[in-house]
Structure formats: C-alpha cells, structure tokens
Design brief:
- This protein has one domain: Alpha-Beta Complex (Phenol Hydroxylase P2 Protein), CATH 3.90.56.10.
- It contains two helices and seven strands, in the order βαβββαβββ.
- The protein has a four-stranded antiparallel sheet, covered by helices on one side. It has a three-stranded antiparallel sheet with strand order 4-7-6.
- A hairpin with a 2-residue loop joins strand 2 and strand 3.
- Helix 1 packs across helix 2.
- It starts with a strand and ends with a strand.
- The mean pLDDT is 95.
- InterPro entries: MOase_MmoB_DmpM, mOase_MmoB_DmpM_sf.
- It comes from Aliarcobacter cibarius.
- Belongs to the TmoD/XamoD family.
- Pfam families: MmoB_DmpM.
C-alpha cells in the first residue's frame, strides 16, 4: 500500500524562499515546484518544518507559528509545537 502525499505551499517572498531552503534541507526526497508567487512542496508521508533549521537559515529566532505569515495551503493533517510544524497523512 502506498503512502499519501503531504502538501505544503508557501509564498515566494524573500523570507519564504529562505524557509524553503530549510525545508529542502530537512526533508530528503521532497519535490519542490516553483510557481508564480508560490513554492510548493510534496513528499510521501510527511513534511517537517523545523524551527531550529529555519532560525539558522534566517539568522534569527523563528517560531513555528510564524509559518502562518507565508503559508498558502496544506494537504494533510497538521501537528505543530514549539519545535516543528508537520504536515502528514495518518492512514
């Protein structure tokens, strides 16, 4: 049985592009599609956005709730805490 594909779309702003680099670094095998004004991520099972990785990429403290500032859409269930924002399918 194949797993479902998690989906995350963020705005292609200056900060969004830096967050995208951190997402790519932390999610092996992720598929990234650059679209007009949007960066779309697809990955089997889950996509993890780690606060520590984004903080390092931005050069400042970053909290997972800040993802809402660039978030366009998700596909899947969401689990968020202080350390990470996860989009996943539990099936």
């Amino acid at each position: 049985m194949s797993k479902s594909i998690a989906l995350l779309c963020i705005q292609a702003t200056d900060e969004g592009r830096v967050i995208a680099e951190a997402i790519k670094k932390d999610n092996e095998g992720i598929i990234v599609s650059n679209k007009p004004a949007m960066i779309q991520f697809e990955r089997e099972g889950s996509i993890v956005v780690k606060a520590q990785s984004v903080s390092e990429a931005l050069g400042r403290d970053w909290e997972t709730d800040e993802l809402q500032l660039v978030l366009i859409s998700t596909g899947g269930q969401i689990d968020e805490d202080d350390d990470q924002f996860v989009v996943y399918w539990n099936n």
